[in-house]
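Protocol step 4 of 5: obtain the predicted structure for the target chain.
Materials: sequence only (see below). No template structures provided, no constraints applied. The aim of this step is simply to have a reference model before the mutagenesis design in step 5. Sequence pasted as it appears in the construct record:
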Amino acid sequence: MSKRWLAERRRDYYYKKAKEMEYRSRASFKLKQIDEKFHILRRGAKIVDLGAAPGGWLQVAKESVGPGGKVVGLDLQPIEPIEGVSTIRGDIREEKVVEEMLMTVGGKVDVVLSDMSPNISGNYSMDHARSVELCHHGLAFAMKVLKKGGSMVMKIFQGDLMNEFISEVKDHFGEVRLHGPKASRSSSSEIYIIARGFSG
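Step 4 output (structure tokens):
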């Protein structure tokens, strides 16, 4: 059996499973697998998801926090409504979007999630650089909205700029780990930064 055959079979597995469980994206299983390992999503927590469309991560987050928690999704694209979830259409670099999110949640959040990805050009160096740029914007947003001791989960494309960015994350969090969930495609260069213990 070739690696490609196995990868396609796994991809089909998560796609079909997402359909069965009525998740909007197979990416839902990436967050579920991350949470199973690192226990980021807690009952009653306040969570914001950056680049949230179409909403697969929002669905998982809402299940995890329960009725006592709050979940907000931000994206440049519209997000179809999800019961119990607030959505904001806007650019995370804009202060008014930060303020609207804080007002919607009612204060700072426990967790910032980011599955943001650049539009893939096919030029790996360019895509990697754009991914890191998005991560910088996500980290800047997290620093404005996270509670002390809070957590961040962020996708990044691996490459020569990654280590410098991770060093920057370590300046603001007590624990920083890298993790590749099984639901990620084997051909993908993505990996997730799991950062806990936000210090400011």
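Step 4 remarks: The chain has a mean pLDDT of 90. The chain has one domain: 3-198.
Proceed to step 5.
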